[in-house]
Each structure stands twice: as C-alpha cells, then as structure tokens.
Amino acid sequence: MAQKDIGNRIPIHTLNTTEQVKDFYNEWGIKDKYNQDMLEWNYTGPIEAAHIFNNYAHDKDMLIFDAGCGSGLVGKALKEVGYSNLQGADLSQTLLESIPKNLYKKLSQSDLNEPLDISDNSFDAVMCVGTFTYGHLKAEVLDEFVRITKNEGLICFTVNEGIYEEYGFDTKIAALETQNNWCKLALYKFDYLASKDVHAWLGLYQVIKVSDS
C-alpha cells in the first residue's frame, strides 16, 4: 500500500536509519510542533488504545511500559482513565523533554529496535502506539515486548495499515499466537490519523508464559 500524505514534512517512509528517524523527531518536537500537528491531524491512536486497554486491564496500579512514548500522548490518555504507574522510552530526546513533569515515573532515551535493557517479566503491560510505522520499529520488537511482560500481562499496540503486511506484522502476530506466546483479546482496524485518511490496526494481546516448575 502506498504511503498516504501526512502533510508538510519529509515523508516518513523515506527514513532508512535510526539516526534519520531520531533527527526527524528531534526537529519535529521543537516549539511543540509535533503536538500541534497531532491535534490538527486528529491523531486518535492514544485515546483508542487507552479505551480498549481500559476494557481489559482492571488494576489501575499496574506497571505499564510506554514504548515509543514520544511527547506523552499515550501517558495522558492512560492517566485520563485512571492509570498512573507509567514508565516510558523514546528515541527522541526532544520529545522526551516535552513530556509534562510527573506524568511518568521513569523515562529513558533508547533505540527500541535494539535489545531492551530491561529484565524479563518486569511489566504488567506494554503500550506501543504510533511507533510501528514506516522506517520505525520492526515486527521482531514484539518478541522483546513479550519477554519483558509478566505472565497474563497485556500488550497493546498499533500498526500503520501500510506496513502491516509489508513489514511482516501480520506474520509475526500470528506466529506469536500459534506458538502460544500470547492470545488475542482484540485486533481491528480504526481511523488513526482521521483527517489524513490514514488507518491502523490496533491489537491487544495477553501474554502466556509456561512455568518452569
């Protein structure tokens, strides 16, 4: 599927390296331009993800890792529905510095395509909204999310419709279910950047880990 126009920026699908992506978002975050664009484009991902997550996650004190947290839009949406035990990581230091104080308990700047410096079974849930898109995270990152999530924990993510098959997300998602690493709670397509006619898949899965005992 061809990349749809999202405005007056360098097309995201032309970004080929981690450094290019980092520079892109560091520039985009200056003077709150990123947040302004998300509002103008009617970016519904964070609210949609928080809504479906809230339908299944009943412990408001659960520890949630926001992977690719950007300027904290997912954190804000989660806080609106009662979750506050949040940690986040993003590639862009500029976006991290734009996050409101005290929204997250911990923030780190990191390349999420690399192995995470996080112990197994550290989090009750992982959120990854807006980061599975052109030139960004690979489908294999889902393996790391499963690793750091506790048994019966939740992983909630969006995947831009244009890369869902091209980048192998359809195959990876199905393989994790076939291998009994997680089970599907929800998977559907929704309006992602509504004013730009861009859609995304939203998935919510529960992690399955077999005890060694």
Describe this structure in words.
By secondary structure, this protein is an alpha/beta fold. It has one domain: Rossmann fold (3-Layer(aba) Sandwich), CATH 3.40.50. It is built from seven helices and seven strands. The chain has helices at 18-28, 33-40, 45-56, 73-80, 93-97, 141-148, 169-178; strands at residues 64-67, 86-90, 106-109, 123-132, 149-160, 182-193, 198-207. Strands 3-2-1-4-5-7-6 form a seven-stranded mixed beta sheet, sandwiched between helices. It is globular.
Q: How many domain units?
A: 1
Q: How large is the count of helical segments?
A: 7
Helices and strands, in order, run as HHHEHEHEEHEHEE
The first-level CATH class name: Alpha Beta
Amino-to-carboxy terminus distance = 46 Å
**Uncertain runs:** 1-10
* Inertia-based shape: globular
- In CATH, what is the homologous superfamily? Vaccinia Virus protein VP39
If you consult CATH, what is the topology?
A: Rossmann fold
Helix and strand composition category: alpha/beta
| Helical percentage | 25-40%
In total, the number of strands is 7
C-alpha Rg (nearest Å): 16 Å
Largest sheet: 7 strands, mixed
Strands side by side in the biggest sheet: 3-2-1-4-5-7-6
CATH architecture: 3-Layer(aba) Sandwich
Percentage of residues in DSSP E strands? 25-35%
Mean pLDDT, all residues: 86
